[in-house]
Amino acid sequence: MVNIITDLAKYVMIILLAVYTLLGFRLVRKPQEEKRAALWTQDFLLFALQFTGNAVLFLNTENEELLYFYGMQLLAFLIFLLLQRIVYPRSDKLLNHNLLLLLSVGLLMLSRLSFDRAQRQFQIAVLAGGLTFLIPWIIRKAGRLRELYWVYGAGGLLTLIAVLILGNTAFGARLSLTIYDVTIQPSEFVKILFVFFVAGMLYETQDLKRVAITTCAAAAHVLVLVLSRDLGGALIFFVTYLVMLYVATKQPLYFLAGLGAGCVAAFAAWRLFSHVQARVLAWSNPFAVIEEEGYQIAQSLFAIGTGGWFGMGLGQGMPNKIPVVEEDFIFSAIAEEMGILFAVLLVFVYLCCFYMILNIAMCLKDAYYKLVALGLGTLLIFQVFLSIGGVIKFIPSTGVTLPFISYGGSSLLSMFAVWAIVQGMYLKRGDEVAENEKEKGQIKKK
Amino acid sequence: MKKKKGKSKRNNREYTNVLWIITGVFALMIGYLAWFQIMESRDVINNPYNARLDTLEEKVIRGNILASDGQILAYTRVDSDGTESRIYPFDCTFSHVLGYADYGKTGIESLGNFQLLTSNAYFIERFINELQGEKNIGDSLVTTLDVDLQTAAHDALSTRKGAVVVIEPSTGNVRALVSKPDYDPGTVAENWTELSTSKDSILLNRAMQGLYPPGSIFKTVTLLEYLREHNMNEAFSFNCTGSVSVGNSSISCYHGNAHGKLDLEEAFAESCNSAFAEIGRDLDVEEFQGLASQLLFNSDLPLSFPYSKSSFSLKEDDTDAIKMMTAIGQGDTLVTPMHMAMLVSAIANDGVLMVPRFLDRTENYTGQLVERYSTETYGALMTQEEAQLLQEYMRAVVEEGTASALQSDSYTVAGKTGTAEYSSDKSKSHAWFIGYASGSKPDLAVCVLVEEAGSGGEYAVPIAKRIFDAYYEE
C-alpha cells in the first residue's frame, strides 16, 4: 500500500511542480497586480507539494518527528509570507514563492537523507530569513552604499587570503574558517561583495584604466581561490566578472578575450595541478576509474539513471551511496527519487528566477543597480549550472552547492542575502516607476 | 523577453544577449541529461558497482532468458514458500555466455540485468500486484543464441580446455559462445570456493578474456599486409626447404616438412612458416602496425561484455628474428578468440564488421515486444577487394591445404588453421581454426581454439566441421 502511494505521489508531485513552473514563467513579465489568481494558485501548489512530499516520506519512514518538523516548516512559511505581505506589500511574490519552493524541496530531500541535517538546515533558514529581513529596506533607502566599492573589493580579497592562509582543509581544498565553533565559508559572502565592487567600479566610467584596475582585482580574487583549490568558486567569480564587464562596457571583445584567457588558464591548470587532472579524469570516463576518482560521478549517474524519468519514489532509492550527497550531489538524489522530470522542472524554476532578476535589471534605470542585479543573477544561475552540470557529467565536477537546496549554512545564508538584495531592487524599481509617473503626470500602461 | 520601448531596448541589448546565452547553455545541459537517460543510462546502470539494481529484486521476479527460437535458457522458479531459485535447463552448455546471477552477475545475466528486473507486464496487473504486495514478473530477454549450434560446439570441445565463438557475419548475431572448462550457472553460489580457486580458471570466459598466441591464423594478417605492400599480380615464388635460419636459431615448418616450390596461395594454404617468415622480414613495420590497429589489435572492441584487448607490439628496431616470428604468429602477439571471430566475420562480410550482438529483443513475460535491439555496423576493417582476395586465399586452405577435412557437399568453407606454440616446449601447442561457411543459409563464421591439443588441422578443424554440419544439415 505504501508502495502504491509512493508511486502515485511521485506523479502527483511532478504534475504539481509542472503547473507551478508553468505559472511561474507566465508571471515573469506580468505586473503581479494583474495575476492575483495565478499567484494564489502557486501558493496552493507550493503547499500541496510540500504536504505530499512530507506525507510520503512519513509513510516510508514512520518517523513521527517528521510530522512536527513538517508543522514547523509550514508555520515558518506562513509567517514568512505574512510578514512579507505586511512589511513589503509591493515585494515580488513570485520571487518569494520560488525561494520557498526551492527551500521546501531542499528540506524534504534532506529530511530523507539525514533528518538531523534537515533540522539544522531549517534552523539556519529561519535565522537567515531573520537576518536578511531588513536588507530590502536598506537597499531601497541607502543609496550612498555604492561609494564604498573599494571597501567591498579590498575586504573581500583580504578575507579570501585569510581563508587561504588560515582555513580548514576539507577534500583537499581550503574553503572554511572556524570562529568560536562556527564554521563558515567566507567565499560565499565575498561573492556578493564582489558583485557590489565590480558594479561600483564600472557603472559610471568604463575607460581603459578603470577596466584594467577592475580586471586586476577580479583576477586576484580568482587566483586566491585557485590557490585555495576552490575551483568552483574561482569559476563563479570569473564568469560573473566577465558577464558584468561585457554588459557594463558593451564590448563583446572583452567577453571573448576573457573567455579565451579563461580557456588558456584552465588548460594550464589541467597541466599543472593533479587535483584538476583527477576531476577531468573522473569526468571523461568515470567507469574506467570507478574505484578511485570516478566513484562519486559513477554513483551519481547510477542514481539518476536508475531513477529514470519518474524516479524510484521518495525513500525507495539509495541516494546515500553517493558521497557528499547532501551538499554537492543533492541534485542526483532528487533525480533518483523524484525523477529526472522533477529535477528538470527544478532547473526551470532556477531559470525562472534568473529571468526575473534580469527582468528587474532591465527595468531599472539606475545603472548601478542594473549591474548589481545582473551580477547576482549570473552568480546564482552559473552556480546552478556548475552544480548540476557537474553531477550529471555534462562538465567536470567542481564541487559547488545547489542554491537553497544543498545542505550548508554559509551557502544558504548567502543565497538568502542574494534573494533579499534582489527583492530590494524590485522595490527600488517600483519607486522609480512611481517617480516617473509623478513626473509625467500620467498613467502609462505597459 | 524583448522590451517594447525602443530606448530601453537599445540600453538592454547586452542583457538580452546574456539571457540568450545562459538559456542556450541550459538548453544544452538539459538536452544532455535527456540524451543520457534515453541513450546511455541502461549501459551505465547495468554496472556491478550499482547496488540499486539489487533493490529491484525485492519488487520483481527475475525474467527469463530465451534462445533465438524461444527455448528457455534461464528462468526463476518460485517455490510455494516464496523462495526463488534460478534454473538453467541446459546446465553447463551455456555457462559462460549466460553467466550466473546468484553470486554477483556475469554474462548475459549481467548485460541484461536491468531488463530482467524490470516488469512491463500489463499495467492493471502490475497495479493489482503492487496493491497486494506481490512481486511482478520481469521481462524476458530473447538472445541471438542458437541451441543446436551451442550444443554442437559444447559437445565437440568435449573435455578439452578452449573456446568456440560462432557469429553470423551479416548481422553480428552471436549464435554460440563456448568456453571450457565450464560450470553449472545454477550452482555457482554453493560451489563458489571450489570454482574461484580452481587452477583451471573455470570462471574465466576464455572466448572473451583468454589471451593466446595466434600461431598461423595470424598469417591472414601478414598476408593482407603483404598484398597491400606489393602489386597483387606480382609473381611470388618461394622454395621451401623445411626451415629458414634466423641469426642463431631457425624457423621450421610444421614437423619440419619441406613444402618445395610454392606460390603465395600455396604457401598460405599449406601454412608454410618458412615462406611467411621471409615475407615478414621485409614488411614495412609502420604499415604493419597501422594494419594491426585497423584490425582492432591494441584497441577497444565494440563489446558490452568484459573482454581483453589483443596485443600486437612489433617495433621498427626489433630484430629480424622477432619480425619473422611475428609474421607467423609466434612473436609477442596475443589474441582473444572473440577478436579472431570478429576478424573472420568481417572478412566473410566483404570487409565490414558488424557489432557482435547477444540480445535481440526484450519481451514482457507474455511475449509482447518491449524493445528490439537493432543490428549495428561497426565499419570496414579493410576494403571489399582486400576481403575478397583473402576469401580466395582462405578458400584455397580448404580446397588444397591444411583444412581439407572441411570439404562438404552441402556448404563451402574458407578458413585458416593455426598451431600455436606457447612455451619453450615445442611439442605443446594450441590448435586454432578461423573460417566461415556459405551455403543455403546465411553465412556462419567460427573461431575455434583448443588449448594444449596439437595442430589446428587435427584438433580445431573437426570441431568447426561439427558446427557447420549441425547448421546446414538439420
Observed structural traits:
heterodimer; A: 446 residues; mainly alpha; 3-stranded antiparallel beta sheet; 17 helices; 74% helix; B: 474 residues; alpha+beta; Beta-lactamase; 6-stranded mixed beta sheet; 5-stranded antiparallel beta sheet; 19 helices; 37% helix; globular; disordered N terminus
Folded structure, characterized:
The complex is a heterodimer of chains A (446) and B (474). Chain A has 446 residues and is mainly alpha-helical. Chain A has a domain at 2-144 and 308-346 and 399-440. Helix content of chain A is 74%, strand content 3%. Chain A is built from 17 helices and three strands. Chain A has a three-stranded antiparallel sheet. The model of chain A has no long low-confidence stretch (mean pLDDT 90). Chain B is α+β, with helices and mostly antiparallel strands and 474 residues long. Chain B has helices spanning 6-11, 13-45, 52-56, 95-98, 107-111, 113-116, 123-131, 147-157, 192-197, 206-209, 219-229, 264-269, 273-281, 285-294, 320-327, 337-348, 384-400, 456-459, 461-472; strands at 60-61, 65-66, 72-78, 84-87, 136-137, 140-143, 162-167, 174-180, 238-240, 243-246, 249-252, 260-262, 352-354, 359-363, 369-372, 377-380, 411-421, 429-439, 444-450. In chain B, the strands form six sheets. Chain B has a six-stranded mixed sheet with strand order 4-3-2-6-14-15, with no helix packed on it. Mean pLDDT of chain B is 90; it is low at 1-8.
